[in-house]
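Quick review question:
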């Protein structure tokens, strides 16, 4: 049975990205495995080219982040208190009663040193109401993010994926203009659900509910260790099972409702219309559930399955998985570093 080319392309793309920190070993290993599995030579060649491009893209992303980090570190110097005008660019999350979010600095004034316009900062605050797109006026204590690099732990990829070069605590947060559009609406829906969970769940169960629904990791050390020991901690990461429960249920209900309408049923197969409606919903729900790497991968896989059904094609699980990995690598040059 020939290997599907989407598997080769996706796998080689991830191997190429890993090669940015580990050298050529992952890419060479991928070529050897594909050859042993008797993949078609042309497919192996195409996948190797994709892997080499992914290697170059990941290395370029790491170098770019290191330059931005060095520039921001040299500008601000030691930790400083700054007055900022900034825009929220990352969905806020709650952990240990503290909100964490990323901002893009538009203007800054510090007691010493300076923060460059356009620098990205990761902040913690007591403000639970912020959403993506909000224009804020802040007073914050800022310092450069530490960028450790040693043979055992290389922090550069995870730092580069988040893109923030500064971090600190926002002491005063005031809204200048509230954000609009789908991202802000999703964040407001997250805040509403988070508030209802906090208000209605027992204190011990609320972190577990937030992990399952919003993708927020806020379990106590004891509970986290218990889930790991049970071997079920993967269930807390929003991924395929979560999207299947929500999106597939919606698609099934919509198809049933469409069949009951003679007018809509005349215009085409209700199952295909419902599947088409489920494609954007998969990405919306993945964003609502925290937009983790596993959630985005599951959204792309589900979108491929529903897209095939909407086009009247027969869905293929293995090809959908390959396409989801390939899409993740194409959109994120450092996707391979998201466990």
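Suggested answer, residue by residue:
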């Amino acid at each position: 049975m020939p290997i599907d080319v989407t598997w080769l392309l996706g796998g080689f793309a991830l191997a190429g990205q890993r090669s940015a920190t580990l050298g050529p070993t992952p890419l060479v290993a991928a070529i050897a495995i594909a050859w042993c599995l008797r993949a078609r030579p042309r497919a192996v060649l195409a996948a190797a080219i994709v892997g080499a491009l992914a290697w170059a893209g990941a290395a370029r992303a790491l170098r770019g982040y290191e330059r931005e980090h060095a520039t921001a570190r040299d500008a601000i110097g030691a930790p400083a208190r700054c007055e900022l005008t900034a825009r929220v660019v990352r969905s806020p999350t709650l952990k240990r009663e503290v909100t964490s979010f990323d901002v893009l600095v538009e203007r800054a004034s510090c007691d010493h040193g300076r923060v460059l316009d356009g620098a990205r900062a990761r902040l913690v605050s007591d403000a639970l109401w912020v959403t993506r797109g909000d224009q804020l006026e802040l007073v914050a204590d800022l310092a450069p993010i530490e960028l450790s690099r040693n043979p055992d732990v290389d922090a550069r990829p995870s730092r580069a994926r988040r893109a923030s070069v500064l971090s600190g605590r926002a002491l005063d947060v005031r809204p200048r203009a509230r954000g609009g559009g789908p991202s802000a609406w999703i964040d407001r829906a997250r805040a509403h659900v988070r508030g209802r969970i906090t208000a209605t769940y027992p204190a011990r169960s609320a972190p577990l509910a937030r992990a399952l629904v919003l993708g927020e990791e806020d379990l106590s050390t004891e509970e986290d260790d218990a889930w790991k020991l049970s071997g079920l901690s993967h269930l807390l990461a929003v991924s395929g099972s979560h999207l299947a429960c929500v999106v597939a249920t919606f698609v099934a209900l919509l198809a049933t409702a469409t069949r009951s309408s003679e007018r809509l049923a005349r215009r085409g197969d209700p199952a295909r219309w419902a599947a088409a409606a489920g494609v954007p919903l998969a990405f919306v729900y993945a964003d609502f559930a925290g937009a983790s790497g596993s959630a985005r991968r599951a959204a792309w896989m589900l979108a491929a399955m529903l897209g095939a059904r909407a086009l009247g094609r027969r869905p293929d699980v293995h090809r959908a998985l390959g396409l989801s990995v390939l899409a993740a690598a194409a959109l994120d040059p450092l996707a391979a570093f998201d466990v």
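Why it works: DSSP finds twelve helices and six strands in the chain. The longest strand covers residues 98-110.
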